[in-house]
Write the structure tokens for this entry.
Amino acid sequence: MKNNLLRSASYLMWMFLLVMSACKKSGNKVEDPSAKPGNDKPAQHAPKFPHGTATGPQTEKQIGPEGGTIAFPDGRMSMTIPAGALSGQTTFKIAVVSSTLPGTSGPVFRLSPENITFQKPVELTFNYTEEDFAGSAEDFLYLGYQDAEGYWHKIQKTELNKQNNTLKVKTTHFSDWAMLREFLLEVDKDLVSAGEKANIKVTWLDVDNEDNLFDLLLPVTEVLDANVVNWKLHGVGNISNKKSLEAIYTAPETVDKENEVTVEVTLKGVINKNDPREPGEDGIVILLAPIKIMPGEYFNWEISGEKFAGAGYAASVSNGQIFITGMHQNGSVSIGIKSMEAGTYSFGQDEEGKGGLLVVYGNKGYSSSYEKCDSGEDVFSDGYVNVESIGQVGGFIEGGFSATLYHYEKCEVTAKKARGNFRIRRAGM
């Protein structure tokens, strides 16, 4: 009898370990996963991403045991070191680097020194604008960091303050930090003309649940069709209205004046009903994305959120270069690209395949590059100019730009975020 009991107990223990091992390997809870996006797909492990490269100015400040604050010049990000966190004087730096993770919003900041040890946590504060959650919502903004190995981590407990438009975390280490959008309504064209179409897709910045590593980020993945409740259109035109993670917006055949519509999608089974900043299965997510409809020619741009509509503009292609200019009574934009073909161009020296951008704003000139006083080193914007198409003479040159621009005076840098879109008839030369 005793041997039979031992054999039965051993068998039950073996079965228990086998089941536990299987659950651990699958990484999933024993529950119906149908309401969770991505759970019916093969498990993914969080990948490493290359670290970004320096693309803009940096700021530095010495802080000692008494504590202090260092802020980036444009006010987008700051860090506060409390009294008692340091044992001696330390030079802190904040620099802008390129983003290598899809789903980031705004600049990626590199904080240093990286190997410093704090005796108390320091506080990081990011200031966000409406542009940072365009196609998403404030509740889906988080802070994240990239570790030394290249993995990105999402800080689930990011403190969101909607009144002050800030995101805050406390940390004891430095690395590359950025704002992340958990859900995003991606629009391939946020500006269209008569009869044009825009493709829209819902994406989700997932985490790796294979080994319960719920802060390790995966690349942007697609929400399941089953999570889509419906699509809606607020404004003129029409939108495909099937329960799919992708939709197509079509502008009216006739456009007499500038207009804006809003595309809306409702998702289910992806967040917690009582706390939209936590994952769950009973909540609803509503995402909105604006699309602007423009007649004929236009050149619109924004500088630090202030909007301008060009009163005059010109575009031409000659001598191996593309020239685009927009004028307004309170400023202007000039773009030069050393190419004669459509494409996306980064900023650089006067060399083949590079672009340059100059904006007059507030009676000051802001450029896509500047030369440092102390070293003579050239610093180039992290942005781009995208030329979507180049028509024949009399046809249209279309595209847009997004860049951090710099006003450099007496060795002091002032940075402004700028973006714009253009559709201008090509002049003959």
